[in-house]
Amino acid sequence: MVKFIMETLSNRSFILQTSSGQCSRLRRLKNGVPQGSVLSAMLFNVYIHDLPDTASRKYGYADDLAIMLSRPMWKAMEEGLNEDMGTLVAYPRQSTAQRRKISRSGIPP
User: Fold this and answer.
1) Residue ranges with strand state E in 1-109
2) How many CA atoms, within 13 angstroms, populate the side-chain half-sphere of residue 92?
3) Alpha-carbon torsion angle 23, 63, 42, 33, nearest 10
4) At 5, is the secondary structure helix, strand, or coil?
5) What's the pTM value of the predicted model, to 2 decimals?
């Protein structure tokens, strides 16, 4: 299964074609997953299954994530959403660092 996933995610390329028939040169994809595949949604769900806690509620569907926060005052809502976005943006970097520690020591930090 791991080999199948790795082959699906690696060595992908694309060519753009305009309505007039002109084509771009072959380009390689360096990241991301194939759009529209069942595997893409499944991998996204695996990736976000341990998102950090936030004041906002998180809603995931297919390969999208939305956050929702209710506050009585606009300023408080804006500050809360900005704080939660900062937490979520920092998550992939923290997660990568934790995976490196686990792979070296064999135990979670």
Assistant:
1) 12-14, 27-29, 57-61, 64-68
2) 5
3) 20
4) helix
5) 0.59
Exposure string for 50-68, b = 16+ CB within 10 A, e = fewer: eeeebebeeeeeebeeebe
Nearest one of 88, 86, 79, 102 to 52, comparing CA atoms? 88
> Cα(53)–Cα(36) distance, rounded to whole angstroms?
28
Q: Could you read off the pLDDT of 51-101 as tens digits, one per residue?
A: 889 999 998 877 788 999 999 999 999 999 999 999 998 887 776 666 555
Cα–Cα distance between 59 and 88 in angstroms, integer?
13
pLDDT in tens, 34-61: 777 788 888 888 878 888 899 999 988 7
